[in-house]
């Protein structure tokens, strides 16, 4: 079984089989910084369930907890609408594929040229092949079940679940309560998904349907149209594409898997659009791995970019500055990347902080934005959210020890954090890192080599102001053939490290400020074919040789 936990901690699954067929499990909501989080959750799977009074939520969570312990339990599977008769209990959903004949006319597809795939909660019109379509269908179902547990107060199935699971002192477990009955959750209407063949097919289709330019549409990997009540994807299994798919799916779930009364309006049209995008960005962090799933946590890819903005660029956009903007104002902003970074960072803090009142405020805000009636009292906006968000981003050794990263890291920024060699040793070796920023950390070459055994996938690396980094990393750095940007400023690196970069043909930006580089390295620098920017200030390179470099490479940004 898959077990999901919010806030970065994990607990073991009851079954470590391939997660493509996993059932979404019990969701927990512990504090982001809770000590011994892993131990607590292993000993008590119910720990952290929201404590405010939402009828049926605790009982619904108990259903999943019991199913995790007994994945073949027929009463529980029948109630959730999961396939019955599977001896392993691993079947996620009955998936039925037929030759397509009922796609909406606006898609413009001829009958028989596509497949129609039905799952319990989705109707998928697909131009992709069977295996890829099935893979996407299974992921959509898993994401749906996880979403229902986290956002139970907003879910359209809440009333059904509450009715069927109402307290009965004569029954003990949820399984006992449901045994022998015919209780089963039903779905009002399936959500529609269009799965295109590939990126080109996706771009052409979206450009035609939305009237947008092909170039603009091709920048995305997923899109939800509230007007057509349809999500559009193509079966790209890269990390970024999966995150995008889950982002758009959350927009669809809040609109269509709730009793939303928005009608033709858009959520956040007039204000607070930050939360519409923030909660979708938060859900991007969901990952399934080794029998469990996680939503949120310090290792969320989006938080690495927020951490860089706060501690490298010294940016902290107040929440009050984000709240007035509606959808149109946001789309006209010239700083969209900054807007998204802080919208998602604030949402992570509010969901992961462990403060019940803060989480309740998020739920009430979402209910207001999507016009969903829920019985949760209105709360005031959290006080001093900037301080809380920045504190969440500033990791330390204890946080890394008690909240081990579970995902495959492709981006990792620890700049501005209180992390030492001890904290870094808590991380599993990361072989797929593309961006690594360890600026200012008191680490050495051994720490670097342990974290990244081979830097072949790195495109951006910052070791700025790491005083113990020296020429001992030269042999390790020689394998970083894809590096585009390297910052060694303030380290003890010298000519030996520069020699290791002789075959790094993709290097564009090189920061060597206050290093031990000398004139001996200039010949190597001159041979780097893609180099555009280099800083040699504070080195032993002579003024005469810098002038020569300027004459030889007039297009370089030298000592910018």
According to DSSP, the number of beta strands is 17
**Structural class per helix/strand content?**
alpha/beta
- Give the overall shape, derived from the CA principal axes: globular
Low-confidence stretches: 1-49
Instruction: Note the main sheet.
Output: 7 strands, parallel
Please give the domain count. 2
Mean pLDDT: 86
Strand order of the largest sheet: 11-12-13-14-15-16-17
- Measured as a percent range, the helix fraction is 25-40%
Beta-strand content bin:
5-15%
Distance between the termini: 54 Å
What's the total helix number? 23
Our Rg estimate from Cα atoms comes to 26 Å
What does this molecule look like?
- InterPro entries: LRR_dom_sf, Zyg-11_UBL_adapter.
- This is Leucine Rich repeats (2 copies).
- It comes from Roseiconus lacunae.
- With 560 residues, the chain is an alpha/beta fold.
- The strands form three sheets. Strands 11-12-13-14-15-16-17 form a seven-stranded parallel beta sheet. Strands 3-4-5-6-8-7 form a six-stranded mixed beta sheet, covered by helices on one side.
- It has helices at residues 37-43, 57-69, 74-80, 130-150, 158-164, 174-178, 199-210, 214-217, 239-256, 273-283, 301-311, 319-322, 327-331, 336-352, 356-370, 385-393, 397-402, 421-424, 445-451, 474-477, 495-500, 522-526, 543-552; strands at residues 3-6, 27-28, 96-99, 115-118, 122-126, 191-195, 222-225, 230-233, 287-289, 292-295, 411-413, 435-437, 460-462, 485-487, 509-511, 533-535, 557-558.
- The longest helix is centred in the first third of the chain and has 21 residues, at 130-150.
- The radius of gyration is 26 Å and the shape is globular.
- 37% of the residues lie in helices and 11% in strands.
- Mean pLDDT is 86; it is low at 1-49.
- The protein folds into two domains: 3-388, no CATH class; 395-558, Ribonuclease Inhibitor (Leucine-rich repeat, LRR (right-handed beta-alpha superhelix)).
- The chain has 23 helices and 17 strands.
């Amino acid at each position: 079984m898959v077990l999901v936990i919010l806030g970065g901690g994990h607990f073991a699954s009851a079954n470590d089989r391939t997660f493509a067929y996993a059932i979404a499990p019990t969701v927990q909501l512990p504090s982001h910084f809770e000590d011994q989080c892993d131990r607590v959750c292993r000993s008590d799977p119910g720990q952290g369930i929201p404590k405010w009074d939402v009828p049926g939520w605790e009982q619904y969570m108990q259903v999943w907890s019991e199913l995790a312990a007994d994945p073949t339990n027929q009463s529980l599977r029948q109630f959730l609408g999961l396939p019955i008769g599977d001896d392993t209990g691993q079947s996620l959903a009955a998936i039925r594929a037929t030759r397509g004949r009922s796609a909406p006319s606006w898609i413009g597809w001829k009958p028989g040229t596509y497949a129609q795939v039905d799952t319990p909660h989705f109707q998928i019109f697909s131009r992709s092949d069977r295996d890829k379509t099935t893979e996407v269908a299974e992921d959509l179902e898993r994401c749906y079940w996880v979403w229902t547990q986290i956002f139970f107060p907003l879910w359209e199935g809440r009333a059904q679940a509450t009715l069927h699971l109402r307290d009965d002192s004569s029954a003990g477990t949820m399984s006992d309560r449901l045994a022998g009955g015919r209780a089963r959750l039903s779905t009002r209407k399936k959500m529609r998904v269009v799965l295109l063949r590939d990126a080109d097919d996706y771009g052409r289709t979206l450009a035609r349907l939305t009237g947008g330019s092909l170039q603009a549409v091709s920048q995305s990997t997923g899109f939800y149209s509230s007007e057509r009540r349809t999500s559009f994807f193509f079966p790209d299994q890269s990390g970024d594409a999966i995150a995008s798919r889950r982002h758009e799916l959350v927009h669809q779930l809040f609109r269509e898997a709730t009793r939303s009364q928005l009608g033709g309006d858009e959520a956040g049209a007039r204000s607070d659009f930050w939360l519409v995008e923030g909660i979708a960005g938060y859900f991007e962090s969901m990952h399934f791995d080794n029998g469990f799933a996680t939503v949120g946590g310090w290792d969320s890819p989006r938080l690495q970019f927020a951490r860089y903005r706060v501690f490298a660029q010294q940016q902290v956009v107040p929440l009050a500055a984000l709240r007035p903007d509606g959808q149109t104002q946001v789309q006209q902003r010239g700083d969209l990347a900054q807007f998204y970074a802080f919208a998602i960072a604030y949402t992570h803090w509010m969901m992961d902080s462990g403060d019940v009142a803060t989480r309740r405020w998020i739920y009430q805000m979402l209910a207001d934005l999507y016009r969903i009636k829920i019985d949760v009292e209105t709360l005031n906006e959290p006080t001093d959210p900037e301080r809380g968000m920045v504190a969440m981003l500033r990791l330390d050794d204890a946080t890394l020890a008690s909240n081990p990263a579970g995902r495959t890291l492709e981006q990792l920024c620890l700049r501005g954090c209180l992390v030492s060699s001890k904290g870094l040793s808590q991380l599993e070796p990361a072989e797929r890192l593309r961006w690594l920023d360890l600026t200012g950390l008191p680490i050495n070459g051994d720490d670097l080599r342990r974290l990244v055994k081979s830097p072949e996938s790195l495109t951006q690396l910052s070791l700025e102001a790491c005083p113990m980094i020296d020429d001992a990393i030269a042999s390790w750095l020689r394998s970083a053939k894809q590096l585009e940007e390297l910052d060694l400023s303030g380290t003890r690196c010298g000519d030996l490290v520069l020699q290791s970069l002789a075959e790094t043909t993709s290097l564009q930006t090189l920061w060597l400020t206050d290093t031990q580089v000398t004139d001996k390295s200039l010949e190597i620098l001159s041979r780097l074919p893609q180099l555009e920017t280099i800083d040699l200030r504070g080195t032993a390179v002579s003024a005469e040789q810098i002038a020569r470099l300027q004459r030889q490479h007039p297009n370089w940004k030298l000592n910018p």
